[in-house]
Amino acid sequence: MRPRPEGAAAEMFREWSANTGPGSVGFSVCSLATDELVGHATLYGAALPWRAGTLAILLGPDFTDRGLGTDAVRTLVRYGFLEMALNQIELRVWAFNARARRAYAKAGFVEEGVRRQVVFHDGEFHDEVIMAVLAAEWRAAQPS
Questions:
Q1: Of the given ranges (10-24, 48-62, 124-138), which has the lowest mean pLDDT?
Q2: How far is CA 39 from the centre of its chain?
């Protein structure tokens, strides 16, 4: 990852959350306890007739392991299925990111495939895992 100027992250998240384009929606992720900006979550690439979108989330390193990412993913999945009428939501995650993979699985995502050695990180190549959840699967898992 390339370094970014301090203070620029908040402005970048605001720009990403402007929601000016069709087929995408972005939300700032804030801590309910402190109302502090902790990251950004987005669904993008959703277009007719496919009704499939891609989810991406970014949290600051000081805000992991607090359940904020899991909550944001669940909220965005709900929004994608109920408000955007999507049929499928997919994401891509580095294979070595076990914490994120567990959070996505909690939200109903299942592994669909692997792109082998497409990520270069920390001096090595790594796999990227493709995960997805279908609207019918998500609805079936919701409490009655």
A1: 10-24
A2: 11
Tell me if residue 55 falls in helix, strand or coil: strand
| Residue 43, amino acid | L
Q: Provide DSSP, 78-93.
A: HHHHHTS--SEEEEEE
Sign of the alpha-carbon torsion through 118, 129, 51, 15 = negative
Q: Which of 87, 103, 144 is nearest to 129 (CA)?
A: 103
State the DSSP code for 45. -
The residue with greater pLDDT, 26 or 110, is: 110
Residue closest to 119 by CA, chosen among 129, 111, 109, 104: 129
Task: Tell me the per-residue pLDDT of 105-120, one tens digit each, with 9 for 90 and over.
Answer: 989 999 999 999 999 9
**Residue 43 contacts residue 53 (beta carbons within 8 Å):** yes
For residue 74 the two structure tokens come to 């669940």
The pTM of the whole model exceeds 0.85: no
Q: Give how far the C-alpha of residue 61 lies from the chain's centroid of Cα atoms, to the nearest Å.
A: 15
